[in-house]
Structures are given as structure tokens and as C-alpha cells.
Amino acid sequence: MIGGAQGSGVDTSANIFAKAAAQGGLHVFGKREYYSNIKGEHSYFQVRLSKKIVRSHVDTIDLLATFDDETAVRHAWEVRKDGGIIYDPTVGGNNIDDIHTIEAPVRARLYSELDSQHLPHSVEGVLEVARRKGVHIYPMPYMDVLKKVGEQFGESSLSSLTRMINVMAVAASFALTDYPQDQVNEALRKQFKSKPKVVEINIAAVTAAYDYMRDKYNGGFGHKLAPIPMAEKRIFVRGSSTVGIAKILSGCRLQTYYPITPASDESEYLEAHEIIDLDGALSNEAQAMKGSIAVVQTEDEIAAITMAIGGALTGVRASTSTSGPGFSLMAEGIGWAGINEVPLVVTLYQRGGPSTGLPTRHEQGDLRFALHSGHGDIPRVVLASGDLEEAFYDVTRAFNYAEKYQLPVIHIVDKAMANSDQTYKMFDPNLIKIERGLMISGTIPENESDHGEFHRFKETPSGISPRPVIGTQGGIYWNTGDEHDEKGHISEDPTNRVMMMDKRMRKLDVASKEIPAEEKFHFFGPKDAPITIVSWGSTKGAILDAMESLKEDGIIVNFLQLRLIAPFPVDEVKEILSRAKKVVDIEMNFSAQLGGVIRENTCFPLDQYVVKYNGRSMSQEEIYDAVRHIADGSAPKRVVLTNGA
Fold first, then answer.
1. Do 10 and 100 fall within a single domain?
2. pLDDT confidence bin for 246, thresholds 50/70/90
């Protein structure tokens, strides 16, 4: 874990660390935590490395790299016995009272623990607690070492040198673990590829850090890292970027947004990659996707969704991305798209609510809202991804569903996924198949129109009507927020109302039959396991990692991961739950929203609930402990998880 004041380069340094490990063949999972301000408050980044696939974070750490006092006092408690803490000795005497960004409850907990051990309320007091636990402490005088680097380059500005402290913390970490420096240098070159002078001086800083740590602490740290052979081509990617890449490959050519955390990261990625020229070993369909994507920052979320609807009416694959508060403003637009059968994709990055809630923290509190937003009965598909690989391919599915069934699709991505980084086997763009449904291209023959007016909303057995784009010759029709007839003219006739409502909602039955089971849910583990876990979204990784640990201890469970929440796969879920001996619902919200949706659709009772709503994502260890207690009968019906700093 590396931490520091927001704006001090925590994210950059963690990415350098993770990239250096990933290019050495190690599997990587990274989790980013930060406050909802621009600079000053505490942020930290945990990176987990392994020779095997890792999908989640853990609550305890082996090595804590700090470059400020707050990181040391907040996170020293999380370091395991025989772990290590790298810190700047100049902050050792700092009093906790003087760290003004620490909240009162955290300060009170720190004082209580220090008082119980008769230690001063200072950084050194906290480090002494760690020493007594068996943690190794490694002072690193960053500025003393950096001044020598500055002398080599004629750089004496303290502000310029201070910018490299984060890189030195990374280098010190790798030096302690004996990881080859050339891998770190290469990661630096990739991070600052457009700034060769920055690369040069940072490599010098890395060299100085390696030399210092080896001379001072040679062989003193028990944990070692080494590159391993990589049998496959991998990608190291962040969640928000994954969705952006997939939108480009899926043919999305209009993205609208109003800035909101964490959804903005995706749109900003698209803004940086608006010109599209796909070459290489891609399908002919993908190689033809040259041109550009228009990314528009609108004046508010109402404008964002209505602009995306307008783009979709012209035949463009259009989407908008937002988070809970923005999605609230989009509710009427969802209804307008539903009644006018407009193919629209909304990427919903869940975060803590209600209202502004926890703007930069994790929660799965928007499921009910995604299912029921807007007044009246609105046909929609709700698809929830469980990891970055799923999110990559689900983006195309979302656009395909939207155009095949002519309705809004809400693609839910947890904030925990948006701000996580992970290594995967390289995604395959050739698996992306674009299906545009009954979209009319070219002139509509006169015998298919009624005096130039087209029956856009024609009643059909499937409920899906041929869709001309705006400007199609012979394809004039009307769009309105009111109920309408087949041409789009406003109508309040009761018979027409029933026909149109039945037509729109019938599409969900068609979608439910056509969408294959593997896109509706995933099932892991033996069918006859005594415990069945049900969950959705980003809890997937922690559950799968915990299942491996549970199996080692002789506790066998299986896991039903729901992906298609609307239309709900009633028959499939009933069949799986009918075999279950004990059903445990695990999700990150107060009211166990998925559990309620399952009961509503299947009438199956759920035996126990494991929930978390403190704004921190679930860890492998938390789920392991909760399920272990459930297995031995010592857990209450509702287990509330609270880990996280």
C-alpha cells in the first residue's frame, strides 16, 4: 500500500509499481481510495501481487510505503507481523493533533490504542505499536537522497525534487523485495513516455533509492519478488478505461456526460482517444471502424441523456455515463426513450448514496432505482458486470440489446470496479459482434408507407418494429412523450393504449427467451454444495477468492452471480435455488436489494445476508470470515461487514 496527500502523486506511483510488477509476469489487482476533494485529503492505493490470478483486495498488508505522516498513523495498524513500513524519519516526531485532515472518530481510536500501550500521540508512537507487533520499520530520508540526485542534474528546486518522493517510495519498496530495477525503469518510461527528461531524472532517483535501501537494509526484509515467465499476452487496465475501450470497439460514436465521480473518468478517457484508427489482428468489422467518437460535456444530466437520445434517433450508437445523483436527473429521459422505443445505453457507475452520499466511495445501492426509475411501466434491460473482463464484453451486449429490442439499457458498473486496476489475459476484440436489429437503411418503398408517413411503432408479434433513422426518405414519423399510435401521433384512445403498452412490454419476453443463459448469470462451484452464495457486481472477485480459501479449509460453497437483472431470469434462478440447502445473499448495500428482487421474482426465501455499506469494498478476508461463521452456525441472520480505513 502507498499513501499520501491527495494530489501528491499517489495514483501515479501506484501505477508505476503495478506496471512494473505486471510486465514481470505477476498477476496484479489494485484498489484506489480517495476523498471527494481535489487536493490535501488522504488517499491511498493498495496493490496485490501474486503468481496466480488475484481478483480482490485483502485487509492486511505486507509493505506500507508512506511519504507523509498521515499515511503512517492511519495504516500502520494494517501491516502484518514480519511486514514492513517505509517512512520519512523527519515526520517521526509529528503529533497526531497536528494532522488536521484526520477525522475526529479516527483520532479518538488512535488515542485510545496509544493510551492503552502508554505511548505518545505521535507518528513514532504509532510506529512503536507496529514494532511491538513484529513489523519492520525502514526509515528513508527522501529529501537527503533527492538532493544528491538534484546535484547530478543541476536541479536545486525543492518543489521539483519533492515531486519525485512518490517514485522513491516505489523504488524503496522494490529494493526491499529484491525486484529487478530494470523493470521499474521500464515502467517509468511507459508512465512518462512523452517526457524524456522527466524519465531520466526519475530513473536516477530510482537508482539512488535502490542504492540506499540495499546499503542500509540489505536482505533484511523477508518478502521477495521476482519476475516469472508469462505464457500469455496480458492487458493491465483500469475499470473506467476498460468501458471506454469497449465503447469504441462496439461502434459507439456519441458519448454525452456531465462531470460526476467516478463516471467522468470514462468520458475523459474517451476524450483523449476520440480519433479512431483500429489496425492489427481485428475482425473486418472492427477494422472498418475508423473515424471519431464525439464526446460532449453537457450543462447537466438532463441534457446529457436527451442529447444521447437525439443521437440514437439519427442511427448513431449513443451512450451516456453517470452516477447515482446524475441518474436521478435522467429518470424522465429514460421514460421518453422507453415510450419512443429509442435504443440507448446508460452506463451507471454506482457509488455511495443517497443524495450526494459518499461521492468517491463504493456501494451497490442503485439496483432498485435502475429497475424502477421513471414513472409508469418502462421496458428496459438492466445488466450488471462483475469484473473488468465482463464489463469489456458487456458493453457490446448492452448496445446490441438496445438496438435489437429498441429500448434503454442500463449497464451497471460498481465504483469499486471503475477505480480498480487488474491484469487479464488480453481481451479479444474479434469476439465483439455488432447486432443492429431491425434498422432500415436506404429509401423506404412507397408501398410500405402511408402517404409518406411510416408506421414506426407498428404492432408486431415480437413488439419490435422496423426502425428508420431520422432523414430516411419515406420514413416520416412523430416522436412525443405522450402515448401515440403506430405513426407516433398522440392518442388517448384506450384500445390503442393497451395495444401500445402490450407491444412495448412484449419485447422483454422476447429478450428473455433470446438472451443466452451465460449472459444472464454465472454459476461457480459444485452443484451440491451445502451453501449457495448469491450476489452481483464487484463482489464477484472477493467471493471467488474467498471460495478458494474456504475450500482449503474444507468448507465447500457454490456461487450464483446474477448479471441480467431485468428481464429477470426467473426459471433459471428457480432451478438453481431449488437445489440449494442454504442460500446466502452477499451485497454492498443496507437493504440487500438483490435479495429482495430474488424473492419478488421466485418466492424463494433467503436464509442469511452478508451486507456492507460503509463505503469500502468487500475484501476476500471479510467474506471468508462471514461464510466460515455461517457454515459453523455461529453467524446471525444478517452479518454487517465494516472493514476498511
1. yes
2. very high
pLDDT value at position 397?
98
What range defines the domain where residue 593 resides?
Answer: 519-641
Helix axes 165-176, 196-217, angle to 10 degrees: 40
User: Which residues fall within 8 angstroms of residue 224, CB to CB, at 6 or more apart?
Assistant: 177, 178
Question: What value does the mean pLDDT take over residues 65-72?
Answer: 93
Name the amino acid, one letter, at 289: M
- What is the number of residues in the chain? 645
User: Could you give the C-alpha distances from 487 to 310, 440, 477, 494, 499, in angstroms and in order?
Assistant: 18, 16, 5, 17, 13
pLDDT for res 285: 56
Distance CA 399, CA 312 (A): 11
Closest CA to 39 of 106, 104, 101: 101
User: What whole-number distance in Å separates Cα of residue 191 and Cα of residue 15?
Assistant: 8
**pLDDT above 60 for 188:** yes
Radius of gyration of the chain (CA): 27
| Conformation bin of residue 376: beta by default, left when phi > 0, alpha when psi is -120 to 50 | left
Question: Do 370 and 403 share a structural domain?
Answer: yes
* 462 shares its domain with 425: no
Instruction: Report the predicted TM-score, pTM, of the whole model to 2 decimal places.
Output: 0.94
Is the domain of 529 the same as that of 510? no
Give the per-residue pLDDT at 81.
95
Q: To the nearest 10°, report the CA torsion of 447, 449, 452, 454.
A: -170
Q: CA 257 to CA 299: how far, in whole Å?
A: 9
Tell me if 348 sits within 8 A of 411, measured CB to CB.
Answer: yes
Give the residues across from 30 on adjacent strands: 47, 421
Question: Residue 475 is placed in which grid cell?
Answer: 420514413
Domain count, the chain: 4
| pLDDT digit string, tens, across residues 511-527 | 999 999 999 999 999 99
Q: Are residues 626 and 539 in the same domain?
A: yes
Give the integer Cα–Cα distance in Å for 343 and 314. 11
By the 10 Å C-beta count (0-12 exposed, 13-18 middle, 19+ buried), 636 is classed as exposed
| CB contact burial 201-210 (16+ within 10 A = b; e otherwise) | bbbbbbbbbb
CB-based contacts of 2, cutoff 8 Å, min separation 6: 10, 13, 14, 17, 44, 45, 47, 64, 65, 66, 67, 71, 166, 169, 170, 173
> Residue ranges of the alpha helices (H) in 163-263?
165-176, 181-191, 196-217, 239-249
- Residue in the block written with cell 537527503: 144
**Could you read off the pLDDT of 266-302 as tens digits, one per residue?**
999 999 999 887 665 455 555 556 789 999 999 999 9
Contacts of 84 (CB under 8 A, 6+ apart): 62, 63, 64, 135, 136, 137, 138, 176, 221, 223
- Give the C-alpha distances (Å, rounded to integers) separating 110 from 8, 72, 113, 645: 24, 12, 5, 12
